[in-house]
Prior knowledge:
Elements: H1 2-15, H2 18-38, H3 47-75, H4 78-82, H5 89-117, H6 124-150, H7 153-170, H8 182-190, H9 193-204, H10 211-240
Helix pairs in contact: 1-5, 2-3, 2-5, 3-5, 3-6, 3-7, 3-9, 5-6, 6-7, 6-9, 6-10, 9-10
Amino acid sequence: MKTFSFANRNIKELIRDPLSIIFAIILPLFLLIIFQQFKIPSDVYKIENFTPGIIIFSFSFITLFTATLVASDRTSSLLSRLFSSPMKPMEYIFGYTLALLPIVILQSILFYTVALFLGLSFSVSIILSIIVAIPISILFISLGILIGIITTTKASSGVGSIVVQLVAFTSGMYFSSDMIGKTFNNICQILPFSRALDLIKGVLNNNYTSIIPNAIITTIYTIIVTIIAIALFKKKMVSDNK
Length: 242
C-alpha cells in the first residue's frame, strides 16, 4: 500500500512536467516516421527492425527523467523526510518503477500503432514484444534511479543525456555495430542496449534462436543495476537518518 501511495505521488510529479513526457514520445515518433520516408536501403531501417530500435531509444529518455526526478527529490529534501518513514529501499524503487511503467506501455503501443500505418504487418508478435519490452524498461528505470542517487539535479540531466547517446550509437538502431570495427562492436556487445534491442527484434520477427541469450544477458544487467540502486538507496537512507 505504501509503495502504491509513493507511486501515485511520483505520477503526479511527472504530470507536473508534461513536456518531458511529450518529448520522450514525440522525438522517437518523429524519427520513426521520418526515417521511413527516406527509404534507406539497409535492413536496420526496415520497419520491423527500426520500430524496436525506436522503442529502446525511447526508454533512454525514461532513464533521463527518472534520474532527474530522483535527483530532484534528493535536493528538495523530500527523500530525507520520507526516509524517516517505515518504507524499505525496495519499496521506494518499486514506487518509482510503477509510476513510469504506464509511460513505457503507452510509448510501445503508440510506436507500434504508427508502425502499422507505415507498413508493419500485424501479428501476435507485436503484442508479445510489447510484453517483453516492459521488463526491459525496468533496466532503464533502475539505471535512471541509480544516476539520480549519485548525482545532483543538474548533473543528472547531463549523465542522462550521455545514456541517450550511448543507446543511440551502441544499440544498433541506426547502424550495425560491426560496421565500425571490432573494438566498437565488442563494446556494443558488452553493454546491454544492443542485447535489449535484439531481444525485442527477435520476438517481433519470430527469431527465437536469438531470444534466450539476449534475454539472459539483459536480465542479468537488470538485476545487477537494480541491486546496486537498492543498495545505494539504502546507504543514502542510513546516512540521512544519522
